Amino acid sequence: QVQLVQSGAEVKKPGASVKVSCKASGYTFTSYDINWVRQATGQGLEWMGWMNPNSGNTGYAQKFQGRVTMTTNTSISTAYMELSSLRSEDTAVYYCAKIGLITKSDDDYWGQGTLVTVSS
Amino acid sequence: QSVLTQPPSASETPGQRVTISCSGSSSNIGGNYVYWYQQLPGTAPKLLIYRNNQRPSGVPDRFSGSKSGTSASLAISGLRSEDEADYYCAAWDDSLSGVVFGGGTKLTVL
Fold first, then answer.
1. What gap in Å lies between CA B62 and CA B79, rounded to an integer?
2. A20: closest CA among A62, A82, A66, A71?
3. Which of A20, A12, A19 is nearest to A87 (CA)?
4. Which of A36, A47, A52, B17 is most buried by a 10 A CB count?
């Protein structure tokens, strides 16, 4: 079955960077985009962008352009999301996801989430 | 401020029916499929409705979705205590070239 397993919680200082990993299994990793979505405590879902592991193409939400970098390592079926110049407002749970609406299907799977805390 | 607009809260008693609305524009709901997610506390979102009104395997038929123009709705009938959760609508936005979510609706089963 499809699984997306993310790396553990992180605590970072303002101005630092964080890199979250997402290991995929149960499907052909290079065949589907990986999306990243974040959720601040008590807040709603916020889409950050996508990456196609086969082509390397990316698409970032305007809010994060210049600060986010999405990459993949196809040899180990793992996607990465790096966010730089962290500020307190970036404290959130970050999810990787295979989002169904991208492919107009019900092929929809999410990682367990990674809590990133930005605090001095 | 979310691109898609949902009421922040909704409540109803067990066994009753509740409807959650999601309002957008021609660049998102008006021209693309609407998806609905259920999120229980401390867990990742779970797909509830896809392509406006389709249920994934395993989702009870108590959950139904509809879309008209630039608005969509999620209806839950025969409410149960385990339906108490946050519900989010989502769609692709052609102008933003990205996924947009509603702000979420917290459903309380009284």
1. 8
2. A82
3. A12
4. A36
pLDDT tens per residue across span B15-44:
999 999 999 999 999 999 999 999 999 999
Interchain contact A110–B (C-beta under 8 A): yes
Angstrom distances, CA of residue A93 to CA of B38, B55, B68, B96:
16, 27, 33, 23
Interface test mutation site (partner A, options B99, B100, B101, max chain A beta carbons within 10 A):
B99
* CA quadruple B29, A100, B89, A89: dihedral sign: negative
Q: State both tokens at A10.
A: 């992180």
Question: Which residue in the set B47, B50, B101 is minimally distant from A45, CB to CB?
Answer: B101
**Which strand (E) or helix (H) includes residue A100?**
helix A100-103
Residue A74 three-state SS: helix
Element (H, E) at A106: none
